[in-house]
Each structure stands twice: as structure tokens, then as C-alpha cells.
Amino acid sequence: MLVVMQHDASGDEIQRVVDTIEELGYEARPMPGKQRTAVGLVGNDGRVDASRLAALPGVKEIIHVTQPYKQVSREWKEESTVVRLPGGLRIGGNEVVVIAGPCSVESEEQIIQTARSVRASGAAMLRGGAFKPRSSPYSFQGLGEEGLKLLAKAREETGLLVVTEAMDAEGVDLVTQYADVIQIGARNMQNSSLLKRAGRAGKPVLLKRGIAATITELLLSAEYLLAEGNHDVILCERGVRGFDNATRNVFDLAAITVVHGLSHLPIIADPSHATGWRDKVTPMARAAVAAGADGVMVEVHQQPDRALSDGAQSLYPEQFAELMREIRVIAEAIGRVVAEPLPAVSA
Amino acid sequence: MLVVMQHDASGDEIQRVVDTIEELGYEARPMPGKQRTAVGLVGNDGRVDASRLAALPGVKEIIHVTQPYKQVSREWKEESTVVRLPGGLRIGGNEVVVIAGPCSVESEEQIIQTARSVRASGAAMLRGGAFKPRSSPYSFQGLGEEGLKLLAKAREETGLLVVTEAMDAEGVDLVTQYADVIQIGARNMQNSSLLKRAGRAGKPVLLKRGIAATITELLLSAEYLLAEGNHDVILCERGVRGFDNATRNVFDLAAITVVHGLSHLPIIADPSHATGWRDKVTPMARAAVAAGADGVMVEVHQQPDRALSDGAQSLYPEQFAELMREIRVIAEAIGRVVAEPLPAVSA
Amino acid sequence: MLVVMQHDASGDEIQRVVDTIEELGYEARPMPGKQRTAVGLVGNDGRVDASRLAALPGVKEIIHVTQPYKQVSREWKEESTVVRLPGGLRIGGNEVVVIAGPCSVESEEQIIQTARSVRASGAAMLRGGAFKPRSSPYSFQGLGEEGLKLLAKAREETGLLVVTEAMDAEGVDLVTQYADVIQIGARNMQNSSLLKRAGRAGKPVLLKRGIAATITELLLSAEYLLAEGNHDVILCERGVRGFDNATRNVFDLAAITVVHGLSHLPIIADPSHATGWRDKVTPMARAAVAAGADGVMVEVHQQPDRALSDGAQSLYPEQFAELMREIRVIAEAIGRVVAEPLPAVSA
Amino acid sequence: MLVVMQHDASGDEIQRVVDTIEELGYEARPMPGKQRTAVGLVGNDGRVDASRLAALPGVKEIIHVTQPYKQVSREWKEESTVVRLPGGLRIGGNEVVVIAGPCSVESEEQIIQTARSVRASGAAMLRGGAFKPRSSPYSFQGLGEEGLKLLAKAREETGLLVVTEAMDAEGVDLVTQYADVIQIGARNMQNSSLLKRAGRAGKPVLLKRGIAATITELLLSAEYLLAEGNHDVILCERGVRGFDNATRNVFDLAAITVVHGLSHLPIIADPSHATGWRDKVTPMARAAVAAGADGVMVEVHQQPDRALSDGAQSLYPEQFAELMREIRVIAEAIGRVVAEPLPAVSA
Prior knowledge:
Radius of gyration of chain A: 23 Å
Oligomer: homotetramer
Helix content of chain A: 25-40%
Shape of chain A: elongated
CATH class of the largest domain in chain A: Alpha Beta
Largest sheet of chain A: 9 strands, parallel
CATH architecture of the largest domain in chain A: Alpha-Beta Barrel
Structural class of chain A: alpha/beta
Number of helices of chain A: 11
Largest interface: A-B, 55 and 55 residues
CATH topology of the largest domain in chain A: TIM Barrel
């Protein structure tokens, strides 16, 4: 951390900064320059509250040299994390994992049919919301535990592993019971109570980037999970808020390479929520794989115009099949391979 | 709702839109134009999931004419809501309510001293976090219930009403027990589980705008509270995410007039979190009152350079006193008056 | 255009809207609904100034059904535009055109060497700034006409076609004289004087998206060029301003599919300016091709650490060669092919 | 400037950074830390192209300690600049200057009537566009020189000084001839050719912040003017692009205090373009004055529903009169005074 002094800061003001740094338990190193003095704080400043120093008289600015997160960083752990799922499926290695399914679980017929269909095209995991975070209290809020049971049934019939969202403490307990991966949604990325609970659940967590979260904030939220002892964390870029309503969000694909540089955690991409429109999902899913994503999560519905939520961004099954063909070639072009689905348990 | 068809949409495609609208239980009204046809959906479309229509072939765009919220809207209830607090303090009427206090409750001495000091300058309510939502798991997370007890003690000694944040179901129960107003923070604005719980707590709620929430989303989150039967809701503009790091956030003061136009709910402003820097808090607090805010919430600390959080944006007590003098005059310039603090209970 | 009335608008207020629409020369069609009346304006509303109607008493909102641009839209011209360049190079067809070169032309040796190197790897066009738009007056502003001469010389020696930026009327005249494509930079996307001049220059124009321009604004700026009679326009996505400084800009790759849907004009992508960091350029260039871009423009420098501008985002020649190999495979995966460079004129 | 090395940077890599800094003519000061080494560049780094250092192997990040601008900064010149206009009107002192008038000059009757009306209410300057930057080529583009003549006539009849926009070199020459202050619009804030020309025009310049410009970029554009010898520069906050379409732009009022901290130049605010809606202009104009703006620029039209542009955001004359009454009291509340208009020349 570097405390930059105003150009007319007095010797006393500089000394007070030095004293405060030492009082905080760190070593201070003043560096007089031609225009102004800066005072370096030596050591990992991740836990220092800069506000205390920024408030001192004569201080112009605080500059962080060290990132505020720790266990999620690649400096802490150099080799990439590979999250191992039941049956040997892995996220974060050389394979690109495709997760597909409807926005919401609506009925047994719907989820089983969709699961079979996406598996036939090559998806390795099934998505589908049982607890739905909705902006409006009047929108469909999901089937709850009944939806979780249907997901588990679909897994049994198809072998697809299941990821689904939890929105509160009770939800975490239920999702842990039925699913393979617990999803924390974008709206809850900074819900620290939920993060702590999920961090203790004993199941891998898929953490979606908040709609206006910086990469640093995403990694700090992941740090909550690792700090609770859960190292099986998968991040997900799903679009950030922008100024143009031509798409639902702005798909920040560069976040994939940024995360791969800063952290050892795997990161997948969700082009469905990122764009909001079916005709944009396929090109953006291809782009995500080309950019190096460790997986893609895509909404697919047997009858999008009958969907209870997100119909406009759900692919038709045949569109998903075509997408799978394209991303297999793109994965190969960059030396990777699309993960194969596991055999069905009941098979 | 208006379903705009592509210019080359066929008669069959238009008919399918009409049929779907009728199937949803609404009346459809096709309007052929020179370039394209649009199909109107007559009736309140707040509960219709547009995705289902947007997914139909030949559809170009869905345009909402009606807002998706209901009970929070001024069309639902024309007269402004006045939230009545214990002792007769009111938010949403002609008075401008000033809420002041530290970012976090740190100790008995700190909170009692600060409460006395801000009351002496004219604040009517005390703020102070007992449960702190922090981006990093390593930052100070608050004193918990101990902090709530200290806030209650400060109220007893000074007569200042207390507002403090709850972050989960247990937190709502505890805050309800000790405080006068439950705060839902920006990070939890779309935490629907928390909103539902707070909506049933039987205490007024201060709902802060999420860091990238549109006004519509803010009002929809408030709708969650009203839908649970809680009509005592106060909104709060506290800065939104912008592209320039010159300030912590962008203080969107026009949101105050926008909310006053769309909704009957009162809205206050928090210039401390909006700007992040002490020297910007005073001018922005003045601006908020001039813009018509129903109150301002300001961070004040006896020793900002000792604060465990947000020291850089906390006013010194004498700065707060000066601010109070200025906003009294500004309130009068627009025909309002700054609310007087209540007498201390113990007095 | 739809003029939505307030729910309590009077019959007189509705009539005044009808009268104003008719006075503007359009047909008005009132549509009474359950909650409010809307008045449709029949016909292409692209040229109507909505402000005039929005100002009328009782009006709640103006909703545009028709886009404000005309000649650039796919409804105006359904088949995709293919811009034909000297020697038969085409942008907008099945081929993906790669443009490479340094940020600025610095010296004869630098530009000739770089041109040879990128041509050897497969680039078809050469980029390089002679007039540099810089945020600071103290930054290197380019070699001016001398730089243009060097670009022309590089074309002669390598056969690479040349694209370079013009910043004012004199610049347009000079660039027209030496280059094959005139670039309008992001900072000047809404410089209408410059757009009009470039529209009359008789050379194809590469129009970069402004740093915070919506797609609609980008297309309207292109409309300035077409309105002057220049139909050879190539658009370019180069990143938009975001809230996170992890990358220089946010690369909005979905803009490519949005533009392809709304307009017949070709669009290329510039991952160098979009990300600002060399290690992100390659994955993002691959992603752009996978997303369907009609070309990519990449900064390459023989010695990035000696570059007078943008060194941090310039690829080393060997990195560019590797990128070319990867995007050839990705182009094929989606049924396209990377355009071959033309033979050198002097060959 | 601080060059932060990666934690595993080698001694050779650190030495190369040191050598490069010295080669650039600066002193290098390596600072080994516990986690990583940083290398300080001693001296004003405003003119150093950081890209060259960022490109070196082992470099993690470049951190700027010194701002890239110079003459506009308060460190360069401590006392606030007061721009002196003809007749003794001053911008940047204790007075708050009100500029009012229509978006566009439309006719002699319109501009003279409006000028008389706003002067009667207390405006000191007249605004009105003769050259209009429009997003669409089909929108009204202004009366050109004829409009400038009408503005000069209005000045003669009312004593109001005139500010109007120039969009290119010829425009600067014409505006210089007729107006008192040359306006550079938001779309042209980074049009460096135009800035250089305006910097040599010999008249004060009103420089509006670009729609997505950071404060640093705004100050750098102002630096272009000062670098050409023009020190009479007035900045203007007019709203920045945001994610919510509830208002036309986000009015970033904190920019006023930020600019007052970093620069000696005066800054005014334009609530009309910032909000886009008449009912928001008055509260936001009051807020701007309360925030410490050195002036406000407000659109007023005799008949907003007849305006050729921006009718929805233009105040009615009686609304403007009421606004003047309110801001006089607010100015006094913070120890300032609204500037009186000058006597008419013809009087």
C-alpha cells in the first residue's frame, strides 16, 4: 500500500501517517519525491482498512499494490484448480463442460424431456431453477423442493449432474441434499450470510458474477467460500450492466482471461443471461469457448414460447445440437476438448 | 404491452401472437401500420412474462406501457406516504429528517458520544452498523447483537431513533427487537428471501438502492415489502456504479425526483456512501436537500482516523454541525423544514 | 411512435396530441386501454422530434417503434453489404479480413518491417496511425503526412491495403490521397462535420464505435456517411466504457450479432483497444471471429517495449503468427475463411 | 509513477525496468517489499507513456502518482481562475452565473422574446445553438451563421452575453466573431483538432464534459486549450451515460466538488441535458447551486411544445422565474450570490 501525500503536506502530517502505519502493525517507508512524498506500507495490506489512513490530514490518495483477496489468487496457489464432480467430471482442466437446461423447472415432463434432449446433444450437466430470484414479487418464483426432486430424478434417468440455485440458508440445505453443485446467483453475489453458509455446505459452488461486480469483488466473494474451507469453487461470467439496451447485459468475455490471470479458480460463461436473446446465444457461446472459458451454461427449452420464464433467451433443442457441433471444433482449435456426459445411473 | 412485429411478419405469425395473448387471459388488439404491425395487449401487463411473447416467430420487440410494479406506484396511491415513527417523527411529509452516526458501532463510548454529538447538532435519528456487509471476509464484520444493544442504549440516552442493517433472517429478528427502522443494504436489495422476511417484521424498512439497480428495480424490491403487508417503506439513493473512480459511486440525485414522480414512497439520500470522501459529503448533502430528498443519512465519527470502517467518508462532528446549519436554510428555501430530534426517553 | 398518456389525462389533452401529430403531417390513431390511452403515430417516425410531443400536457412517455436510422438498416436493404477494396479484397462477405500493424507509424524501418512480418503471417491489411487522437496534449500526436507516405510505401512493398485515421477536414483529404480506407476514430464517432466530409471523400470508411455509444448511435453515425452517398462503410466494435478497470474497456462482442441483425453493413472487431493488454488480445481476437466478426484489427509491433504508443497492448510478431493459425481454424468451424493478402504491387 | 513487479519477477527483469526508466530520462528507485518489488519513477510522470514500461517482462501493473495534466491543476496554480467576460461579468468568483435560452435559435422573434424573458427573471447570459450536433443526419441542424447574427442581435437588445457552440474550424471562426464564449459540446470534448483551434481563438471557452468522460479526461481536454495559451476556460458537467433510462443521463453533481479540488478552473452545470425532462430540471438546478457550481445553464423556451429540438427538457418562462427565486436563496445559504445581468448595450 502506498499513501500518497499532497504536494504541500507538512513534515508533521507525514510523520502522523508513519505513526499510524506502525500502530497498525506494519512497517512504514517514506519516499520523498520531486513533487510529493509517498509513504509505503510494507507487507500484505489485504487486511488493512485504508479508510483510516485516507482520513489523515495531508493525505491525497491511497494506492493498493497488493490485491485484497488471498486464497483465491494465483500468487497463493499457482496451479489451476480442477473441481472434481461425482463420476469423474472435472471443471477447470483441459475439458470444456457444457451445462444446459431450462431457466426454471416447470414439470416432470419438461425437465426429463429437456435433460434427455441436451444429453443426446452432448451436455454433461443439467441446469434448472427450483428457487427463482425474480425482480418482481408477482413473477413465477419456482417449484421449490418439488423442483429439486425433479432435478434429481432427471439426473437418475440421464446421468447429467445437476446445478441449481440456492437463495437463503434453508435453500442451501435443500440444494445440498439434491444437487451436485450449489449455484449462488448474481443478485446474491455479495450476500455474505449466504456465502458463508454455502462455504460450509460441503458441495462445490458455482458463483455467478453480480450484475455490476468488478473482478476484484467477484474474487472477494469467492474468498468468502474458500475462507470457510470450501475450495471447490467455479466462477461464472453472465454479463454486466451496460448503458445500451440492445442486449440484456454486456457479456464481458475478457473477464475470463482476467480471472485466469489473477486466480487459479475455473470460470465458465453464461451467454443466455448475458445477452437475453436466443439469436445471440449461439455466437456468444462459441465466443466464450474461443476465449478460453472452462465451460458454458446455456438455457434450452423444449418449447421456449411456453416457458414460464426466460423464454426469449432459451434455445430450441435443435439449435443447441448445432451449437454443440460448433463448439467442439472451436475447443479443438485451441487445444481443448468438450467433456463427455457420464453414463446414466439407472443405465 | 405492445408486441411489435417484424416488417415481414406473416399473417399467421400475427395470429399466433393474438392467440397467445388471449390464452394468457388478455385482450389482443392488432394495429397494422405502414411499416409493420403491432399487437396491443389490453389490461395491466405487470404480471405477464413478456419472454413468452418475445419468443414467438415474427416478433421484433416487446414494449411495456404499464410499469411492472403496482402498490408502490403513485397511480395506485396518489397521496405521498408518510412513515410514522415512535414519538411522532415522520418521514415523507414536509420535514427533512437527518440521520447521522458512525459506519459501524465500535464501542459504548463511541456510539454514545457520537449520538450525543449529532443530536446536539440537530440529527433526529442515529445510524450505526451492527451487522456489516463487507466485500472482503477479512474486514471488520460488526459487533452483532452487542452492537444492537449499544444502539438501543444510545437511543435511551439521547432520544434519537435508531436505524440499522439486517443481512439475513436471524438479523431481521434481532434488528426488529432493538431498532426503530430495519435497513436493507444495497448489496441485498434483490435478496428476495430477506425482503419477504423484512416485509413481515412489523417495523418500517429503509431500503437502499442497489449499486446498479434501475429505479424500476428499486421499486420492484419495495413492492416485495408492500406485497407482504408492510407499507412503511423508505427508499434511499446512495450512489450507483459509474466508470470514473474519482468518487466511490455516482450520486444519482435525479433519482429523488424520479421516485417522487413514480411512487408515493419517501426517499432519502446517503451522500457518504455515494461519494466516499469527506470533503464531498457536505456539498452533496446540501444538494440532496435542494433536490427535494425527504431526509439525508450522513456518516459522522468522533475520530474518523480511528474508525474501523469508512473513516475517509465520515464527517468530523464540527463539520456535521456546520452542515446542519446550511441545510436548514436550504430546506426553507424550498418550503420545507428540518425535523427536530425527539426528547430523550430518559430525560 | 406511440404517445402514452398519463392515466388521468383529459380528453382535451388527448385531442391536443392528436392535433399535433396531424400538424406534423402524420396520421394519429388513439387507442384507449383499461388503464390509459395511447396515441399511435402511423408512418416512419424516424424524422419526428419526439421532444415536441413529450412536452405536451398529459403525456407520460414516448415510445419509438421504428428505428431512427434508415439507409443503414436491414429493413432498407436486406442483403449484406460487401465493401470491395482495390485488388479484389472484400469485407462483409464470407471472408474474415485481418488488419494488423502498429498503433502509430514511427519510422520507415518500423512500418516496413512490421508490414512484412504481419503479411508473412497472413494479414491482408495494414493499420498504423499518422494522426493520433490522444487524451493528453503532451502525448505523441503522430508523424502526419510523412506517416501517410510511409504507409503508402509499405503497401507498395507488401501488397497490404492501408487503413488509417483522419481527425479533421484536412486529414480526410490527405488520408484519401494515400490510404485505401479512411478510419473515423471512437473519439470522433459523433463529430458530424467530420462524418459529412468523410462521406464525400470517395473512399470506404471504417467507423469505430464511440466509447459509450449505443448501437443505435453507431448506426446513426453511419447513416451520416450513407446520407452523403458513401455506401462503403465498415463498422468496428472496439470496447465500451465499463465500471471495472481490470481491462481498458469492455469488449462488447454481442454488438457484432446485434449489428448483423439490424444492419446490412459489415462489422469488424478491435481486441487491442478493447482490452488494452497483450495477453488478452489473442483470446479476444479468437472470440471475435467465433462471434461472427467480418474481420479483426490487431496491434502488432516489432518491439512493443519501444513503441511510442500502446506498447502494452501490441502483440509480438510471433504471437500474431500463432493467433493467425488459431483463427483460421475457428473461421472454418463456422463456415468462413480468413482472407488471403493480395500480391505486392512491386512484386 | 510506480512500476509494480510480479511477485516472481527476476533480478534481470527489475534491472530492465530501472534501465528503461533511466533511458527515458528519469530517476528509478527500486523498493523491495515482502511480497514483491516496486520501482518508483521520480519526477513528474505526466509525459511518460506508461505503455512502454507496462510491456516489459515481469511487470504487473503501472500506478500513476502524478496526474497527467499540468496547467489546469490546482497544484500548478492554487488560486481559483476567474474568467472575466465583457462588461465585467465574471465566472469562477463568488457569483453564480445563470445562462438560459433555447436549445436552438429558431427565429428572430423566438430568440429575442426568450432573451428578454430570461433577462427579466435574472439570467446573465443567453444560450442558443446555431450549429447543432445531432445524432441523426435527419434532425434539425441549426440556422448556422444566420443564427449567430440573431444571437448578437439579442445581446444588443438585452445586454445578455452570448455562448454558443462551434463544431469545426470554420465554426470556431464564426462563433468567435459573434459570441462572447465559444462552447465545445460533449460530443466533441475529445476532438483535439477542434480544441486546438478553439485554444487559439482568443475568446473564453465553455468545455462540456463528454458523455462518458472521466474527470481526468475532461481536465486533459481543458489542458489542450491552456496549452494553446487560452486560460479562460469554463468546464461544464452535463450528465454522463448511465444504465437507467429513467433520465436522459446521470447528473454527476459530485464532479463539481471533484473538479474544484483538482483544478483552479470554474465549473458550471447543465441540468437540462443531464436529466432530459422539464420536471427534473428545477430540482437539479437547485441541487447544482447547493453543490457549489459556479453557474447553471438551463434551457428555456417560450413554447416548448413548438421547439424544433429538446422541447421536453425546456422550462416554461414562468418556471424559470420561479427557479431563479429559489436559487437566489440557496446561493445565499452557502455564502454566494447570483450574478446580475449587465445593462443592455442599446439602453
